[in-house]
């Protein structure tokens, strides 16, 4: 455990709330100072970069690579955003558009089970442990994912009640069928794992 984590553990509930509030205020201030806004879901990051009024797509110089993002104006040497991405992206699924003097960059995360601390590595980080994902409904998921989530929920509920999980139930059912098909075998001393 790091010294900061140990210090946090030693704090009273009120001290923790005050520290969390101070940390959030500093994080908000740091993020507001960036030349862009960004949001994320587990699988994607969206970056909104303001550009001068009247900017057109052909005026922009945009580079989206597996670990790099660069946005600037062709007429200027200075980049609005330029750096190494904190995590890798799927380049072929990442896009950009220009709407109302804002460049909208959509980045598909390579690892879709991980929150990003920042967009580019040299910018201030956010505390990913404090992220509260938006509510999603089982109906929003595709069939295979929904089935997996429902199975996990069922298995978790069964474990909490001390009952067998879905995999254990399948094994028990298969054993019962095998025993019924082979009554001549004696399973009285068998240990099944």
TrEMBL record:
Organism: Collybiopsis confluens
UniProt cross-references to Gene3D superfamilies, sorted A to Z: 2.60.40.790
Origin: domain of life: Eukaryota
GO CC terms, sorted: cytoplasm
Record-given protein name: Nuclear movement protein nudC
InterPro entries hit by this protein: CS_dom, HSP20-like_chaperone, NudC_fam
Pfam short name (any one): CS
Compartment(s): Cytoplasm
Keywords: Cytoplasm
């Amino acid at each position: 455990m790091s010294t900061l984590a140990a210090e946090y553990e030693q704090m009273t509930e009120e001290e923790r709330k005050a520290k969390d509030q101070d940390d959030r205020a500093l994080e908000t201030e740091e993020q507001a100072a960036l030349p862009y806004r960004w949001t994320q879901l587990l699988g994607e990051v969206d970056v909104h970069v303001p550009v001068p009024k009247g900017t057109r797509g052909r005026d922009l110089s945009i580079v989206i690579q597996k670990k790099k993002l660069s946005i600037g104006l062709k007429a200027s040497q200075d980049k609005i955003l330029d750096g190494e991405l904190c995590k890798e992206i799927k380049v072929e699924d990442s896009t950009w558009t220009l709407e109302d003097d804002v460049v909208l960059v959509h980045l598909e995360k390579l690892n879709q089970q991980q929150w990003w601390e920042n967009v580019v590595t040299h910018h201030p980080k956010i505390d990913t442990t404090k992220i509260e994902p938006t509510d999603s409904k089982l109906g929003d998921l595709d069939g295979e994912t929904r089935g997996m989530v429902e199975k996990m929920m069922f298995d978790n509920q069964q474990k909490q009640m001390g009952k067998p999980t879905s995999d254990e139930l399948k094994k028990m059912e298969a054993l019962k069928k095998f025993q019924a098909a082979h009554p001549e075998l004696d399973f009285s001393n068998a240990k099944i794992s």
